[in-house]
């Protein structure tokens, strides 16, 4: 987990140093002149550290001694290497000291200075490359030569052996350092391989994450396309619905305009009706006032007429009584006269013929009783019918030629006055009844028109219509009560 976390962190210079990874150094061109090229020699295996004992040295001397001629032949192969002291080469590895390469030579070879031809060249040095076998052969042969001859300072072989031993020790030390450097290089190479693997893993993970992201993006794109198609279909459906709704709105707008026009027309008609109703209200109020005044006047006239009728009846009754009394007195006097005439005629006829005895004269007891006025009004019989009830008697022509003057003068005058009054009452009643019927019909129509209205919203007109309705209801109740009483 820690390794993965370190891999996911950003690579910086500090993290590279911490992980001991080699930093990339800028490459420099190393200028060098080579006079003679030599084919690449085979690298010998590294030396094995052995304890320098006499047995080992003898064994090595037996196995590794080579002829001197071969050494001299190897010394002829000279390689001249030139280097610029002013140039500084960048280290290949950051963790290795750059000074370690100054004295490092290829393994299995010793470098010696060859005097002679190379002294004329400044800053250049002729080097002789000797192999390990030669070095070991020389080192092993030194004890034998030393054992044969005593050591002298002027002996070049001793000096050469000393130098070769020093060089061998130095080469061993350098080989050890080279082994250490190779081990460090291997370790660094392993670290580089590990870092490369980490980078490959990160690249694979990044690639996989990128592929996953690409697949997710493709899926999102497909989903977006499907959603776009669905939204397009929904948009088309909504457009169709919008068109239908627009058509319906146009129809509804036309209907609304028609309804508004109709409502304006109805409102105008309602206002006209209200104006007509107000006019009718004023007319009805005026006519109602006139009717009430007329009814009051007619009632007063009716009372006056009734009073006149009662007075006339009273006068007629008194005059009739007087007339009857006078008529009764006249009839009595006439009866007495007729009785006297009958008596005289009976006396004369009895003396003249015997048949006159059959005629019975009128006696004074059989007189006509006076007739009361009530019997006249109840029976409605004329006074002449009363004479028929009396026994028949011959009347004188003088008595029949004088009718009563009182009856002929008073009766026609009273009948004409009563008929005129009756005609006047009948005419006034007819006119009043006609007006009342007209007003009642108009009022009923007005109440029929306003039966569904809220009269409280009509203000004063509603109050007047309510009062008019109450008056008509009371009038109907009064008429019903009068009909029940009759």
Automatic annotation (TrEMBL):
Q: Where is this region: Disordered?
A: 1-120, 133-157, 340-424
Polar residues composition-biased segments: 137-157, 358-388
The answer to keyword RNA-binding applying to this record is no
Taxonomy, superkingdom: Eukaryota
Cell inner membrane found in the keyword field: no
Q: Biased composition, Basic and acidic residues: where in the chain?
A: 57-75
The residue ranges flagged as biased composition, category Low complexity, are 342-357, 397-416
Ranges in coiled-coil conformation: 164-241
Q: Which UniProt keywords apply?
A: Coiled coil
Biased composition regions of type Basic residues, renumbered to the chain: 8-21
From the Swiss-Prot or TrEMBL record, give the protein name. Uncharacterized protein
